Amino acid sequence: MLSRVRFLCLASLIVAGPATALELPLPPLGEDIVGQIQVIKARYEDTFADLGSANDLGYLEMVAANPGVDPWLPGEGAEVILPTRFILPPGPREGIVINLAEYRLYYFPKGQNVVHTFPLGIGREGWGSPIAHTTIVAKTPNPGWTPPASIRAEHAAEGDPLPAYVPPGPDNPLGPFKFTLGTPGYLIHGSNKKFGIGMRVSHGCFRMLNHNVLTLAKIAPVGTSVRIVNEPYKFGVSAGKVYLEAHAPLSDTGEPSVVDKHTAVINALLKRDELAGSMRLDWDMVREVVAAEDGLPIEIAVPEQALANQEVPLDI
Questions:
Q1: What is the mean pLDDT of the chain?
Q2: CATH-assigned architecture of domain 95-229
């Protein structure tokens, strides 16, 4: 349950109205937030998977933004938050940036003042997607698939043997398009399964909704840089206010400890030199945002005089 203070912060961001494709104008120089949170009323037959596909959102980010709402049957007339406001990932705004912690890809086309953003399925436990800086080295429409020996062995052990080759078509796990990355063995591609986008489901590659991968195929050329990061905590500025967006940290061995979360938050803040050295933050709110891990940008700065004697807490 959101505290009243946090609810008021969130309510100030929400706008009602129809969802639009996630091609968003970049913010002014020195600012970091794009998009607007939206609220829709569910129909009886809606599921989070359907709503995510229709609004360029992944399953887990829909679940995180709507605690207490049944993802399989929200119910006729239920209000559902579409988390379509984002703090841009840290670092250069160029090429493709994939943030594993939010299951999301950002594409900054050269010479254009926009960003395109799409949900991703990423590597599941034991098959983690890499943190890397690479490029798109090839683009292939209607790809066939030759399953690697390791994946064929895994499926055979589970009683679900794979053929040596899967031709292009509706049953192909790569969907209608694939991008080959310079990091050997990794692709960005479509999928023959709607469910699983925005989750840890792959053997390390990046799955996209088919209509999203076809959009990206039209606008991202061979040679585009691809920077893959893992940033569960993103700080950003908008209209002179400081915001924090928190996602559940990824780990193959279990949830990070409280100390790990505290360290990760401080490290994320220190990457923003202009914030770390000059801003007074409401650490109670920071703690609450980190605990919620709902992926929504929340204002965390308070008037300096209210925090004159406050120190950074050790129990985030």
A1: 83
A2: Beta Barrel (2.40)
